[in-house]
Amino acid sequence: MKCKACGAPLTQSARGRTPEYCNGCSRKLGLRVREAATQLSLEFETSSDVTKLDEQALDPESLTSYSRETLQNLGAHDQARRAWLREWARSRDYRASWFTVYGRYSGYYQTGIPAGEEGWTRFLERGVSYDVYCLFVAAITPDIPLKHYLEDASERGEIKLGDDLLWKPQ
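RE: above sequence
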């Protein structure tokens, strides 16, 4: 069994139920993720853009989950992420935003969206679903790195994270 927040192995206690988190920091991080998911579901319930979408796409956990099903370009999950990011950017006055992306040959790297409504609109209209997913994960769970979600998808067999990177950070 692994920690829900960081993926560290858990030890079985002699009595009582199995812990869900390895320590207090991970437990607090799990609380923040649940609070963010609750906030996300409340925002989706009040958003007129999202009410037309498939009910499954409104589940906050499915929006942060990386799978072939949830990453279909302009599918229900992708549209829900874009609608949420549109509102998020508007509430932050369209500030510039940096987020992490994983490339097959480049590994993890930072990319961003320039400040201003035009930059955000261009990204949300033209961005591929993978980039929208990466930004969504960075916005909704800033304390959990993208690597956590991709490694989870790799363990489930959805993707293959290779060590065949052309450049490796020191």
